[in-house]
Batch of 2 targets.
Target 1
Amino acid sequence: MNSWEMMIHAKLASMAEEGLQRELRPIKDASQPILMYQGKELVNFSSNNYLGLAGHPQIIAAQQRSAEQGAGATASRLIIGHDEEMEELEEELASFHQHEAALVLANGYMANVGILSSFLGRHDAVFSDRLNHASIVDGIRLSRATHFRYRHGDLNHLEELLKKAKTRGIKRQLIVTDSVFSMDGDIAPLRDIVFLKQKYGTALLIDEAHAGGVFGKHGEGLAHELQISEQVDLHMGTFSKAYGVYGAYVLARKEWIQYLHHTCRSFIYTTALPPTVIGGIRQAIQLVKEGMNLRIDLSKKSQYFRDELVKAGFDIGGSTTQIIPVCIGDENTTLTFSRKLIERGIMSVAIRPPTVPKGTARLRFSLMANHQWENIQSALVAIKEIGKELEVI
Ligand code: PMP
């Protein structure tokens, strides 16, 4: 073995020993409420298809129509110009969310990395919730700004750090937070964060990846639901979850979006999204806007699922949304739990470090508006039985 092979082998072996090995599973119908794995039907609690739109015939038909314009965009938007559909989509997005302007980006990961590294530089400070998504952490790293990580949802800690940055004389500061946390299903105290933003004169970026389509009267997101969206300088979200398609957006004042056109490297140096994706997104937006019943269904099913788990004695952390963790702690027990669930016809992935902090391994259940009630109920029976067998409850 050469030194590369030794390093790779040792890393994989140590991850396996700690119960941190990852598996790529070949799956059919991966976004649907029932998926196929190894020839077996499983109830799917692992997809982010919260409103069930990923299989919607109108979205698929729209994608087929858009495919007539070509299979791919073939160049970056600044090089080739952009499709009229893209222009209309961005106008639609801005008016839907009542922001001045919008920019569509390839995906949420590239959006966060691009936005943060373009607005922040070496002389700036960024305040980031400790449980923010990895794409936020990577964007901050790339920016080289001074990184202040505040304890999850802890406003006292955030304020302490804001004061510290002020005494250091750092001029430009930005607070960044997920609105719904992807591994915990809890929500950020956005109103209080806005209060601190105003008190300390910072900018604010929120990531609505798991809230877009799900919260707000028409699915605009949590900031709208809490009526603080005017205070959000950069409002980012994805089309890959509740919208059931792919891609991401950022909403902001016109000049801020123009600034991104000039500086955001993950926008400038990459090929535009293909027409099929744009067509699908536009149709999905219409369905999200009209999707109040889907949001109500999702909320009822999520509430029931959470209540039943809590009654049975499980620790679901601070979840109040459609993302529901069953907190276990030990990595190997979590993995065993997930394997036993698969044997019982339920797909819920074991979430382990480095996705979550060490010692906080969990199963994560994501609910969908189109999960059948009987499937939810039978899943709960299996979860409780396995929980008792493994002495989690
Ligand atoms: N932000 C958050 C909070 C996320 O959970 C995710 C995806 N899991 C992303 C950004 C990245 O989005 P995408 O999958 O579109 O790259």
Target 2
Amino acid sequence: MKLLEERIRKDGIVRAGNVLKVDSFLNHQMDIELINEMGKEFKRLFADEQIDRILTVEASGIGIACIVAQYFGVPVVFAKKSQTKNIDGDVYSSKVESFTHGRIYDVMVSKKYIHEGDRVLLIDDFLANGCALLGLLEICEEAKAHVVGAGICVEKGFQQGGDLIRERGIHLESLAIVDAMDSQTGAITFREQ
Ligand code: 5GP
């Protein structure tokens, strides 16, 4: 998606350790006009699919998923990152290793909000090593829900996540794929799509 690539080039900051900061328009301050366009694009890319709900993971996926969901007219469910007293009854859960924080945490979804046979679209901001998406896939498997596909804003194509998800036959759509980035020069190379 050219609009997103241009914005990443303009405002994205390449940090050491393969981290791309997009705090000024996606991860801290959010450019709603841009995210709206991303929502329209996901709707176009998954136009043929019947979708019952969107599943994401807190925190940075939530705002994006909510805007995207308006184009599909479905609810958003977000996986919570730790057991809280607010979540009652049984949960589906999975362990996820955080790329940005380097620690392992549990993600969980109440059994009330994801059901057998649900057609689920996964949405997240970044795809790096794939742990977050694999965790959501595991939750859907446990729930016997059907994953229709995964929509990602920024895939870092030089990390393994994209391959792992595609190898599983999941319909993965990434709006921008970064094939290389250099923290010294700030240069970013996008994959032609
Ligand atoms: P994965 O689980 O695929 O390794 O990493 C995906 C998760 O880590 C995303 O939910 C995102 O929040 C975070 N993440 C991974 N790489 C980056 C990055 O380069 N920049 C930012 N802002 N977040 C990232």
